[in-house]
Design a protein that fits this description.
With about 150 residues, the chain is an alpha+beta fold. The protein is about 35% helix and about 25% strand. The chain has six helices and five strands. The longest helix is centred in the last third of the chain and has 15 residues. The radius of gyration is 15 Å and the shape is globular. It starts with a strand and ends in a 14-residue tail after the last helix.
């Protein structure tokens, strides 16, 4: 496995993050990889950076961004006031898929959740991503719930 570095995303990483988000069939339909970045991405980045319960992460190899994910730390009343770590917007550069980078990224993210006192880690994944489903199941995630979304 390749040794990957993980860090909080910086504004200079936005084009690479957006490109990763747009680099699949679903992302091509809902992301805008034009340059300069759509101002909505810039606003979202600023909001994430300002919120201590949000962490936008990049995985780098030799200073190249090859992966990204967003971690949200969510307080809750259920499960005796448990904190949850929510992992979203996971993407790995096409050239690095199936190389162990995703597993390293999740191990790092789960460690961050443990360090923040989370009692569980959860994620959502689109039904159209069967490869991702198999990957998450290999990591020990269980498809225990059905999720619903309402687009506004």
């Amino acid at each position: 496995m390749t040794s990957i570095a993980f860090r909080q995303a910086q504004a200079a990483d936005l084009p690479a993050i957006i490109a990763l988000l747009a680099n699949d069939v679903l992302g091509q339909q809902r992301e805008d990889a034009s340059s300069p970045p759509n101002p909505r991405y810039v606003d979202a980045f600023k909001a994430i950076l300002a919120d201590p319960n949000q962490l936008l992460v990049v995985a780098t190899l030799d200073d190249e961004v090859i992966g990204t994910l967003q971690l949200s730390f969510i307080p809750g009343m259920a499960r005796l006031g448990a904190w949850r770590g929510q992992i979203e917007a996971v993407r790995i550069a096409e050239a690095h898929r199936s190389s162990g980078v995703g597993q390293q990224m999740f191990e790092w993210a789960i460690a961050q959740c443990k360090a923040r006192g989370c009692d569980l880690v959860q994620l959502t994944t689109d039904k159209a991503r069967p490869d991702a489903h198999r990957f998450y199941e290999r990591l020990g995630f269980v498809g225990s719930h059905i999720g619903y979304k309402l687009m506004l």
